[in-house]
Amino acid sequence: MQPTLAAQAPALPTGLLRIIIVVTAISAAVMELIDVTIVNVALNEIAGALGATIEDVAWVVTSYAIANVIIIPMTGFLAEYFGRKKYYVASIILFTIASYFCASSTSLWQLVLWRFIQGIGGGALLSTSQGIIFDAFPPAKRGVASGIFGMGIILGPTLGPFLGGVIVENYHWSYIFYVNVPVGIVATILTILYIARKPGEGTRKHQIKIDYPGIFLLAVGVGSLQYVLEKGQSDDWFESKTIVVFTLTAVTGLAGFIWRQLVTDHPVVNIRVLSKGTLGVTTIFSFVAGVGLFTSVFVYPVLVQRINGFTPTMTGLSLLWPTLIGIPLFPLIGRRLSVGASPLPFIIIGMCTFVVFGFYSGTLNGQANQWDFFWAQMMRVFAVTMLQLPLINQAVAGLSPQDFPSAIALNNMIRQLGGAFGIALANTFVTRDYAQHRYDLVSNLDPSNPLLTERLNLMGGASQRAYKLLDLAVDKQAYLLAYLDTFRLVGVFFLAILPLVYFLRTKKKSAAEVALAAKAMSEAH
User: What span, in angstroms and rounded, lies between the C-alpha atoms of 72 and 75?
Assistant: First the structure.
């Protein structure tokens, strides 16, 4: 007689073994999270070293986000197909190898390629690490597991900009990627030695059908759309045949992907759940939350280094201190949600705070110092903390337990897609807005104005050098105004969808539903 899976299940780890498992999983998750944000403070240095513009170097960030958009919804399926442990080890190895080649890149597009591959490996690390930590604790202590993982979620993005600033300022930019290599090697060894396989994992491979057309259409659709958003402005939009071709490819790919997911019995992303509960409306909020998070973290380092004269270390520190407030908030919010509190008040507070953040940030100027930016960044962190877990909780509201994994995977994918869209939008918006502000500023330079004459005299008289300095001053002011308008645009996005919270109202969950939602979120992909 064959033993049951329950009988085959390994005993829960305790003592030192549990500590090793938690440290291993947190290390892998934090490594991935750090790499999402560590690049932002190094964009100026990477652009200078590789001879690229800030607009083009944004692909270093968006290529990673696009890879995440493609791989995140497939993480649960791939873990089931190959076995969670094998898939986890393979992802860490791929992430580590890609990190090495990112550091070794000698051209922008070589770096973009390896960042994409790094994103493929990194897409599995966060959710799989969460499941591994969850399985290391008995049911009664899984709230502790969620709290530990929540601390890691905050720790990674907090340390990323600071470490990036210190590394870039004191060493070569490539070391922001090299630091992943030893961490990845240690995490791989510890995973192989100490993390047990789940009962029956990887044994259903012959029963699982892979939706290859769906994966292909998703990759083509998202990749083509991102190219259009990134390059449309510089290529004069539909005056360019390349943009026209990629637009048609994006529409065809995304429409084909949606059709494929609706007709196949084995969809890679179960988009049918969008019609259930409040998931359809929740994904709108998740998309905008992704826009707000990625756009603000992308624009801020470029602004303060280009305009306000911050060093990379100053930039990292200015992001570090405000982010620390999220560390105690995250487990508090998780605890409230775990006992059945409605996510709606948290979402409303987070949305309103993001609106205030956007418009307040738009009032700052080129003379602002770290403390002037502190309050704005603190609002951003508070808003993100208020939105992250509650939006996942809201995504499963009104759904049956079997739909939870699909809903959470889809919600997470939409958030990453919003981030990629936000960065592309910011690039396009800054380019157009800069040109308009520069035109307005130059048109207001009246040669008969005594103030202009006085300014030129201070610069050395009406000489070529003085006009060059004036041109640089106009350029700097135009960029400042464009960046500030971008922050305001973020506020407008959140303000525009705020009325939709009316459609997020749901009935109060039962204790059983709360427990199922907590388990689903702990194993979310």
Answer: 5
**Cβ distance 99 to 183 under 8 Å?**
no
| Whether the Cβ atoms of residue 121 and residue 92 lie closer than 8 Å to each other | yes
SS (H, E, C) 239-304: HCHHHHHHHHHHHHHHHHHHHHHHHCCCCCCCHHHHHCCCHHHHHHHHHHHHHHHHHHHHHHHHHH
pTM comes to: 0.78
Triad 384, 390, 391: Cα angle to 5°: 80
Interval 420-437: pLDDT, tens: 788 888 888 888 898 898
Model confidence at 104, pLDDT cuts 50, 70, 90, reads very high
Kindly provide the b/e burial profile for residues 101-120, where b requires at least 16 CB atoms within 10 angstroms of the residue's own CB: bbbebeebeebbbbbbbbbb
What is the rounded (10 degree) CA torsion for 141, 15, 132, 155?
80
Res 357: pLDDT = 94
Express as a percent the part of the chain with pLDDT over 70: 83
Residues 6+ away with beta carbon under 8 Å from 3? none
Give yes or no for a contact between 406 and 72, defined as CB atoms under 8 angstroms apart: no
pLDDT band for 11, please (50, 70, 90 cuts): low
- Burial (CB < 10 A; 0-12, 13-18, 19+), residue 289, is buried
Q: What are the start-end ranges of the H helices in 307-460?
A: 312-323, 326-338, 344-361, 370-395, 404-443, 450-458
Question: Within 10 A of 523 (CB to CB), how many other CB atoms are there?
Answer: 18
Q: Which pLDDT value is given to residue 98?
A: 95
Beta carbons of 326 and 334 less than 8 angstroms apart: no
Domains of the chain, CATH where assigned: 14-198 (1.20.1250.20), 212-269 (no CATH), 276-524 (1.20.1250.20)
Closest among 337, 349, 354, 340 to 390, alpha carbons compared: 337
pLDDT in tens, 22-73: 888 888 877 887 777 788 778 888 888 888 887 788 788 878 878 887 887 7
Contact 183, 341 (CB under 8 A): no
State residue 497's pLDDT score: 93
Residue 275 to residue 277: CA distance in whole angstroms: 7
pLDDT at 446: 62
Question: Rounded to whole angstroms, how far apart are CA atoms 211 and 215?
Answer: 6
- What is the pLDDT, as a whole number, of residue 7? 42
